[in-house]
Amino acid sequence: MTVDGAPDAGGRTPWPGVRTPLPGPRSAELLARKDAVLNGPLRDGGNVPVVLGRKTGHVLEDVDGNVFADHLSAWGAAPYGAQPRSVRAAVQTAWDRYGMEIAQYLVSEPVVALAERLVALAPPGITRAAPSVTGTEAVEAGVKLARESTGRPIVLGFLGQYHGESTYLTAAASTDLPGNTSNNAQYAPGLVLVPYPNRFRAPFHRGPGPYDDTIYLDYLETWVLRHQVEPSQVAGVLVEPVAGEAGILAPSAAWWAGLTDLATRYGWKIVLDEVQTGLGRCGEVFAADLWGLRPDVLLLGKGLAAGGQPLAAVLGTEEVMAGSHAHLGGTFAWEPAACAGALAGLDLLTSGGVLENARSMQRTAERVLGPLVEEVEQVGDVRSVGGWACLELVTDMASIAPAPAFQHAVHRAALRRGVLAISEPDKPLYRMQPPLTMEPELFEWSCEQVADAVREVAADPPEEDA
Ligand code: PMP
């Protein structure tokens, strides 16, 4: 595609190519310096054996001159490639004009225009917006609004979902518990977590027979609402429309209909965390559009920045937000240049072929990676939604036990072939999260490299630690 994320300076995006062992000498030196000075989780024991040198279009170049297809897109925060020209121009023009300013006290036109634009794009019923800097803060704000507007204390969340790193949201974000929190797990009052539909690791399904994820709602209604929490005490449900960090899990339309029914019956607010799914990642402007959801609060982050300046947003209905006294935002929230960059990003999202490109990525991932499930014992599942693909690697199909050594070997083999994607030591997921503007040829080539990496590792699988 030649959406604005294409390389600037008239150059062509360099094609991936790895010419040194990984890490290369310069990366090795910088990684050693990093490990000596940054805190625990950032000392990743060689999980990502490269140091970024520069970023162009849809590739990352390390400090040793190795070039990788970018399947991180800054964890979704750079959805239009490295330096989309229109975003850069908008950020720079606004900064030249307004400098840094605090939107909460002194607004400027980009702030107002962004709020108007987001409300116009959002699902029906959303009429208001509030500023935020990070996804974490936006989700915190969503929880505040649900509690404030209902006067109720309890929030229902879903096991395995990720919402951020504040104390409260770390408790809600049970993606990584309990393995790797090292006595740092947070337990927040007023938070009740229930299972989220997961066809591959289904807590409520075993053996043959059709998989029906409305059984999760039966559990919620029959057990949780009868024995654990009084429905009239629940302010709202906090939910990702497609679980991202938990591995691209999408519930059925029937599950959404059932959850919406419960929310209507009991007066719960639906707080939809679209920080990662929103703005094109799932092939629609909002993942809510996949099912026609009507959230009371909708949260955005990551891709809203369009690769420019950091910002996030809280969107809500008139009922939830118009009379709210909650102070949302902070000093940096919606500084003018960030808003101007976000507006330029929304132009890219809605005027080019970005959504169609994301949908075509799903088809490519299904075609190239999908067959691995039949072909390779250790590929337990392949899931893809829009510009997102994920492999769940296992020791064998009978136990579906996670296979971290196998996964790490796949990650390394893909890196040697020039694909940098997401593989974390404590999660049994290999994920591809490219910029939504990645050229179809580069995306297909990347999937082929990952498939070959899987085959290479399967030919001589590593031992898993007992
Ligand atoms: N919600 C979701 C669904 C996310 O994926 C993330 C980040 N991965 C967050 C919230 C937190 O966003 P941030 O890192 O900007 O605080």
Mind sketching the topology for me?
Elements (H helix, E strand, L loop, with lengths): L24 H13 L14 E5 L2 E4 L4 E4 L2 H4 L8 H14 L10 H13 L4 E7 L2 H16 L3 E5 L8 H6 L18 E4 L20 H14 L5 E6 L13 H14 L2 E5 L14 H4 L5 E4 L11 E6 H4 L14 H16 L2 H15 L3 H4 L3 E6 L4 E5 L10 H14 L1 E2 L1 E2 L6 E3 L7 H20 L7
Helix pairs in contact: 3-11, 4-11, 12-15, 14-15
The structure holds 4'-deoxy-4'-aminopyridoxal-5'-phosphate.
Give an overview of the whole structure.
This protein has helices at 25-37, 73-76, 85-98, 109-121, 135-150, 167-172, 215-228, 253-266, 288-291, 318-321, 336-351, 354-368, 372-375, 404-417, 440-459, and strands spanning 52-56, 59-62, 67-70, 126-132, 154-158, 191-194, 234-239, 269-273, 297-300, 312-317, 379-384, 389-393, 419-420, 422-423, 430-432. With 466 residues, it is of the alpha/beta class. It folds into two domains: 25-77 and 354-459, Aspartate Aminotransferase, domain 1, CATH 3.90.1150; 85-350, Aspartate Aminotransferase, domain 2. Strand 2 (59-62) and strand 3 form a beta hairpin. The protein is globular, with a radius of gyration of 22 Å. The protein starts with 24 loop residues before the first helix and ends in a 7-residue tail after the last helix. Bound molecules: 4'-deoxy-4'-aminopyridoxal-5'-phosphate.
